[in-house]
Design a protein that fits this description.
Bound molecules: zinc ion
Radius of gyration: 21 Å
Helix content: 25-40%
Strand order of the largest sheet: 1-4-5-6-7-8
Largest sheet: 6 strands, mixed
Strand content: 15-25%
Distance between the termini: 52 Å
Oligomer: single chain
């Protein structure tokens, strides 16, 4: 009898062990991060004209690029920012987001979340390619853009109520496990967000959105003269830099050509 009890206890312990392994496999899905080219770069820009409200960066010319990203979380996919529109003239992407996804053997229908850092045209151009995805966007940006006919055009599908929409007032832990978090970083626009992606091998990565447009802008807490709120921008810089320091994160400035190489070149992904 004692032998049977012991065997039952061992079997019970083994099954607990097996279910614990299953649970841990479920709670740590594979997460990858891939950069898409989301616009065609023009000649280097004199950033002293628009990207400062304190007459900084005199004579500095910066190569601006346009970046979107794919985040894989286990079996789920999210796209961060929708880039320039295919009809944006000289800055239109050479290859659409849908066609870049096809090179990864994915379709727009497989994207669960289309998340937008802010409502400017160079970040929303192809959002309409993801009608089945849940749109994640800062609430204060959503409230502003739905009053602005120009910015609202690409979002028609969600404005009419046909698409799934979740507006984000503060932070948004997208998958509920802390691995992919939209961070409330207002100031460039009222509802602007940055994105934290915690990768197993590379470690935490912070995508700036347009909190900063280039390295010198980031290092000097520079405020472009077209930002919606100077105080909020400076507060967001303070928070973002503290997060970067505490997590020892890789900071990627989405518009800075010098930061492209911080991720493997498309179609490869960081893990
Ligand atoms: Zn931008």
């Amino acid at each position: 009898m004692r032998y049977v009890m012991t065997m039952l206890a061992i079997i019970a312990a083994m099954s607990v062990c097996a279910s614990a392994q299953t649970a841990s496999a479920q709670t740590v899905p594979e997460i990858t991060l891939t950069r898409f080219d989301c616009g065609t770069s023009q000649a280097p820009t004199d950033v002293s004209l628009r990207f400062t409200d304190t007459y900084a960066y005199s004579g500095l010319k910066i190569q601006i690029v346009y970046s979107c990203y794919l985040i894989r979380h286990g079996d789920d996919y999210m796209v961060w920012d929708a880039g320039q529109s295919m009809s944006a003239g000289a800055v239109a992407p050479k290859v659409s987001l849908a066609d870049q996804l096809a090179q990864l053997k994915l379709t727009p229908q497989q994207i669960k979340f289309i998340a937008i850092s802010h409502y400017h045209a160079d970040h929303i151009g192809q959002v309409g390619s993801f009608p089945n995805a849940t749109l994640l966007i800062g609430k204060r940006d959503w409230d502003a853009l739905t009053k602005n006919s120009e910015s609202s055009v690409p979002f028609a599908h969600w404005i009419t109520g046909a698409g799934k929409l979740e507006t984000v007032l503060q932070d948004k832990d997208v998958f509920g496990d802390g691995t992919v978090v939209m961070l409330n970083m207002p100031g460039h626009t009222p509802g602007h967000h940055s994105l934290l992606v915690r990768l197993k091998n590379k470690g935490p990565v912070l995508l700036t959105g347009d909190l900063a447009h280039f390295r010198e802008n980031y290092d000097s807490d520079g405020v472009p003269n077209f930002n919606t709120d100077r105080t909020e921008t400076l507060s967001s810089f303070d928070r973002f830099k503290k997060i970067a320091r505490n997590l020892k994160a890789t900071v990627i400035i989405q518009h800075d050509a010098r930061d492209i190489a911080k991720l493997p070149p498309f179609p490869a992904a960081a893990h």
